[in-house]
Amino acid sequence: MEEELFYIQIGKNVANSEQSQMFGKPCFKINSKAFVSFFNNCMVFKLNGEMHTEALSLDGASLFDPSGKHRAMKEWVQVPFHYQSKWQVFAQAAAEYVASNSK
């Protein structure tokens, strides 16, 4: 699975990240708080501000709804694999956002 291997490399490239699980899915955490996850061949990022707006504006991107019951997680944006060139930037922004809120 090319997408998942790419996701793992992105997560490992973020300083101080640790591989873990969230909702039974692979994720990476900073200070025990998830900042990215992998779901349905997409990468999911916890973002705010301009980065959230930018990620959500991408064709095919959506708010993350892991249950599929129309209960989207408002800070989390699911970005399709065809935007993998943007994943590292979003992952770094997500890590910084989560780290700044977990102090």
Question: Can you tell me about this structure?
Answer:
It is a single chain. This protein is an alpha+beta fold and 103 residues long. It has one domain: Aspartate Aminotransferase, domain 1, CATH 3.90.1150. 37% of the residues lie in helices and 33% in strands. The protein is built from 3 helices and 6 strands; from the N terminus they run H-E-E-E-E-H-E-E-H. It has a 6-stranded antiparallel beta sheet with strand order 1-2-3-4-6-5. A hairpin with a 2-residue loop joins strand 3 (33-39) and strand 4. It starts with a helix and ends with a helix. The mean pLDDT is 90.
Short description:
The chain has 103 residues and is of the alpha+beta class.
Descriptors for this entry?
single chain, 103 residues, alpha+beta, Aspartate Aminotransferase, domain 1, six-stranded antiparallel sheet, 3 helices, 6 strands, globular
What is the end-to-end distance? 35 Å
Number of domains: 1
Instruction: Indicate the mean pLDDT.
Output: 90
**CATH architecture field:** Alpha-Beta Complex
Q: Provide the succession of SSEs.
A: HEEEEHEEH
Helix content: 25-40%
The backbone outline, from C-alpha atoms, is globular
Please outline the helices and strands.
Elements: H1 2-12, E1 18-22, E2 25-30, E3 33-39, E4 42-46, H2 49-57, E5 62-64, E6 73-80, H3 84-101
Helix pairs in contact: 1-3
